[in-house]
Amino acid sequence: MLRLGILRTIAVTLLALMLVLILVIPLLPFYDPYTQNLGGSLLPMGGRSFDGKFYLLGTDTLGRDMLSRLALAGQVSVMIGLGAVFVSLVIGVALGLIAGYFRGPLESVIMGIADLQLSIPRVLLLIAVAAIIGPSVTMLALLLGLTSWVSYGRVARGMALSLREREFVLSARTQGASATWNIRKHLLPNVMPQMLIVGSYEFGQIIVMEASLSYLGLGVQPPLPSWGMMVSEGQTYLALAPSLVVLPSIALFVLVAGLQFLSQAFTSENEVVGAPERSKP
Amino acid sequence: MSVPTHEAEPILVVRNLSIDIPKADGITRLVDDVSFDVRPGEVFGIVGESGSGKSITMQAVLGLLSSPLKITSGSIKLRGRELTDLSFEEMRKIRGKVMSIVFQDPMTTLNPVLRIGAQIGEAVRLHNPSMSKQDVNRRVLDLLSLVGIPNPERRARQFPNEFSGGMRQRVVIAIAMANEPDLLIADEPTTALDVTIQAQVMAVLAEIRQRTGAAMVLITHDLGLVAETADRMAVMYGGRMMETSPARTMFEAPAHPYTAGLIESLPRIDRSVSQLYSIPGFVPDLANRPSGCVFHPRCAMSNGRAPCREQQPPLREVGEERLSACHFPEEVAAWQAEQERLIAVPDGSVQPPAAGASSILKVEALEKEFKVGSAFFGKGERMKALRGISFDLKQGKTLGLVGESGCGKSTLARVLLRLLDASGGNVFLNGEPFLELKGSRLRERRRDLQVVFQDPYSSLDPRMTVHEVIAEPLRIQGKYDAARIDQLLEHVGLTPEAGKRRPPEFSGGQKQRIAIARALALNPDVLILDEAVSALDVSIQAQVINLLKTLQAELGLTYVFISHDLSVVRHISDEVAVMYLGRIVEHGPVRRVFEHPAHPYTQALLSAIPQRGHAGTATERIILTGDLPNPMSPPSGCAFRTRCFRAVDECARVEPELAPRTAPGHLSACLFAGEHGPEAYARQRQPEETDA
To answer: ipTM, 2 decimals?
Structure first.
């Protein structure tokens, strides 16, 4: 009980910190994340430019305010993460439930696709697509979503396999319920808690993935900032201004760690779900 | 059964034992002031429904209580040594050496990745660390032969998954007996086993005890088993001891209204009764234990009298060797006699089936084959799960289907419900060929045939409200009507308010009522009850059985009642079909089959059931040897011949037809159909043990 409480407290604290960064900071009268101030480039944290402006977290190579850029980059990351999680969850749950409920050839085909999917290196696929279509935020979210449905699909199929034999599903079938009815009314509500756990875990993974791609220049394109891209831009000045690399890394760490802890906390709370609630005296 | 020596010092003395569990809203007392003795060499039965505290009490004796459960007061003395204040290390030396336990489920008690020999050897070595390897091995083989496992050398090298359920439980017993303990605690040792296997395991236990002189505490919910096996027994309810008395007299003259109520709730294997007594209400919530006598709110004799409500009755002597925790134990006998009179069926009042009754469910030569093995690799073998099943069920009647696990009775239910496709044969529902229906026509007709499953926990979607659960069939058929749902809830004895809550808030019996309400929502003609009362406690089981009988009378329902419990089948059915390895081996009117069974298998089943006053010794009853054969390669000829005490060479060549052999309307599939009592069985040579 106590352990679970600690886990959740950490998760909530970290995520609250992030919420402040990406939602509250942009509302406050800080500097515009795009405005360059070449007279005040590479300022350290708490530094003042020659024109007397105060920068809480310093500035980057072009003299742009680090705090505002971190906040904006956070928004971009979260948007991409949410979009990708949504896309993959919908695809994964749909395919997983269909495979698990109908079994037979349909299941073989869907799970075959899943195996193929896992055998294609995701980064190479993304490089190819980005090279052909050209990178954009929407495309990134879509692509990350399309390539990460397998974890949802696997879990959903596994649960569907046991749920379809549960007696409330059998009894609905004897009452004349169609497959659509059973999947919608019985399977979906029962797999959703687990799917959200997978989702909160995948969310973190996707954000790390997005950062890596942006670091490689395949993700978010300038002038829109992204944490990965900020690391990439800052590494040239690592000795001179380490905060350019350290700050976005910390932001990334805080968000992803918060999400992982949250998913852990969900998991422990949901362990009993689906298990028979029988108790032996 | 050894004669307990009354004078001897008790081996186990439990005094004023109380066990608490701290909860968020205070402390709940699970076991309250329980005292009892176990004497050397005797079998002491503890009976109670779920939540009575019987298992926790014995876990405390073994020092196996897991936190947060805690012994708050009382003493447990084993051979005069106080156990409650022993350290873990000291307790470890006692467990397995002086006393040991046999758990309920042999599937989970054994470690699946260790060989059987190694697991028994472990138990031997734990208390004899200096024993040489050869000696340990010799002891393991001794133990395996002791519990009647053939080919011990070969079997010791096998893994648990190569053993059947009954054989595994023998291994568990071998482990428990490894160090010849003085006290063996058996917690529902045969509940997970079939009745013929149960008889084997109980015989093994009796033999071992005779040889080692160990005393045994038998914890069970099965009154019949206790009555037959135990020397003395105790009845627990709501964490308290209600009664202790000699097992032989408990049935004839219970000294507590709860015991009497339980006895009257039991369906009888030996005679028909018009209806069962059912203890009203539910097992109490221990967090709010009723004041005074814990049983008084459900007691038929209390009538709200002040002492019952206000004073907790102490466990006091009411006769020789008999203790009762009731204020008015002398009234029990009169109440029980009155009940016996009320439920008796006058002779000849059973009507023969009306000649004109219309056939509602007709099954002709139904077959079901499963393909076993991978579709891609390997040959893929076929398993015949159902072979030539035929019967014709009339409107308003109940067909009881009995047989041990693996006989195909649940497969039959699923094929009838079209949850599985038949491999051959026909089913006519109201004269219409049900197996040929397709698409929307099938979905529409399915409403005529509904089902109630065994497990009340998995048959209701935990995420729906009860209202939604019962509404589902109506919504599927597009006929939602809120008033109808309230009416259904009232039909099964629940209030419309219950509809707002969710299934996990209800007890097992209530859940089963909800499942019945859902099955009735579409006004079916036939209800398939697949072990529908098997998971329920005795007193709750009687309530549900009475409900089913009432509903049948009111609504003219036809039941297919599937159960492994022959007493319940006898009580509820008009005709009964006995299945073995996918075939019906005997079929006839219920009284005829139970009173004059024609097939040796039916005779063995009936004989294996522990019951009151039976007190059977091994020579008086039929104990089948061996396990169910592998259905993938059934024996040639009669499938039962490998376990049959009547089998001759001809049985291997000819498969007997199901035909009237002993009386018109009473079908059986045996070349030697007719009555073979235990005497006939005793005359036969014992067939050699077959290991599955």
So the answer is: 0.78
